[in-house]
Structures are given as C-alpha cells and as structure tokens.
Write a structure and sequence with these properties.
This protein is of the alpha+beta class. About 25% of the residues lie in helices and about 5% in strands. A two-stranded antiparallel sheet has the order 1-2.
C-alpha cells in the first residue's frame, strides 16, 4: 500500500469534498519521470485515462520522487530514497 498527501490547494479541496480519501495511480507510466505539467501527463497517458485535473505548474514543488519503504521486513528498508529521509522515517517508526 502506498500513501501520499499532496500539498496543493486544488487537490486538498478535492480530497475534502470527496470525504477525506482519494485513490489513484501515478500520473505517469512506470519508469518515466514524474510530470510537472498537465501537458506532460497528456503526452504520456493520452488515450489511457479519462481526465486530467490541471492544477498548474508543479515544477516549483519538492521535485523529488516519493520515498518507498518496504514495511514487510524488520527493520523496514528504503527501496527508493526520496523527499522523506531515513532520519525523518526513524523519528516516526524507529530503525530503518
């Protein structure tokens, strides 16, 4: 399971209006760079999705891929480093 919490007013409003939880896939094909514009999503996903929510340019955001952690092993193991650092994780869950 993956959990993300966006930091964009439009998406936060969508989550609130939906009742608190929204699920969805990434806006890019696996192995491709994360998109920062709706046009990037359209270029990669055209014909594969029904709709794109355009919240504007996201290139000024964090710009780092999500941290992926395997929680099925002890201690948990970082599979892909990202914005959430090992130290940040250890503050919450202990040794990583």
């Amino acid at each position: 399971m993956a959990v993300r919490m966006p930091n964009h007013p439009l998406v936060l409003k969508l989550i609130k209006e939906a009742g608190g939880y929204v699920t969805g896939p990434s806006a890019n094909t696996s192995g491709r760079p994360s998109p920062t514009l709706a046009s990037h999503v359209l270029e990669d996903m055209n014909g594969k999705i029904d709709m794109i929510v355009d919240g504007g340019d996201a290139s000024g955001e964090i710009g780092i891929e999500s941290t992926i952690v395997d929680m099925s092993v002890e201690p948990p193991m970082i599979l892909r480093p990202g914005f959430i650092s090992k130290e940040m994780l250890e503050e919450c869950i202990g040794p990583v």
